[in-house]
Amino acid sequence: MTSHAQTGVDLTKNQTLVMGALSSADGPLSAYTILDQLRDDGFRAPLQVYRALDKLVEFGLVHRLESLNAFVACRHTECGDRGQTIFLICETCGKAIEVTDKAIARRLKTVATGALFALQTATVELRGTCDACRAA
Amino acid sequence: MTSHAQTGVDLTKNQTLVMGALSSADGPLSAYTILDQLRDDGFRAPLQVYRALDKLVEFGLVHRLESLNAFVACRHTECGDRGQTIFLICETCGKAIEVTDKAIARRLKTVATGALFALQTATVELRGTCDACRAA
DNA sequence: TTTATTGCGTAACGGTATAACGTGTGCAAT
DNA sequence: ATTGCACACGTTATACCGTTACGCAATAAA
Hints:
Two copies of one chain form a homodimer. By secondary structure, chain A is α+β, with helices and mostly antiparallel strands. Chain A folds into two domains: 72 residues, Orthogonal Bundle (Arc Repressor Mutant, subunit A); 57 residues, Dna Ligase, domain 1 (2-Layer Sandwich), CATH 3.30.1490. Helix content of chain A is 38%, strand content 23%. Chain A has five helices and five strands, in the order αααββββαβα. In chain A, β3 and β4 form a beta hairpin. In chain A, α1 packs across α3 and α2 crosses α3. The longest helix of chain A is centred in the middle third of the chain and has 14 residues. The N terminus of chain A is likely disordered. The interface between A and B is medium-sized, with 33 and 33 residues. The structure holds a DNA duplex.
């Protein structure tokens, strides 16, 4: 109930491997880091990773962090609501906290509409320091 | 009064050239596009562009679009308020509209604080279709 | 059976960004 | 004046990110 395991999608072998790597990581991973981790499983080329990532993102199981050029497993039960995800990225430990906020989603929609802009997706990535790192 | 020309910073030759390229462009430019445009002015290597861009971003004259890996001249009179800029990026024409919204800035701050996160900067980039392209 | 779709593997490539080196210039403090 | 420092600059090399183009195999649909 806390994972995406039961969204009904069934993953291919490569997709499963990439998903596994991201799920067991404790922070965002770059495509090339994933590639390196999966060499022993037969991965040889970036394209194998990118193809799997494309699908996983499409399924909503993985998010792409634009400001990091990296990918992270979605920690939410339901990410069907697109464009609502906000990431808090710690500059110190590199981890990403995923949150949603309806007020921001609503306001972004309003701002876009006000500019006569047909909104499709939103990227919201905040940089700063997480609680653990600030305490340390 | 509508440009940054009088912010008091004075730019070096390379910074001026890069700023000129971005100012006369009608959309975001990648670093390598800028490099190509400035070959005749003596530019030879990416680093010349990146160094200038770093400074221009630091001065607040230029914004970096994370989701595009590109750069755009700031069109606001005052961007001293950092972390408040929102970009509306048209998927069709590639242009970027720059807006600010205090409500979003405030709410982002609140969300970060709620997560015990010390917010430094915010990246907010919306994708969709601009009015001109939708009409076309 | 034929065709279309989808996933997979490989190689080569192009776009993005930085590291590491050294040079020159201006300027302040001796 | 010369030493020391900070800063911009130029060059080469390299690392990192992502895609194009090709072909093969398995499966699903007509």
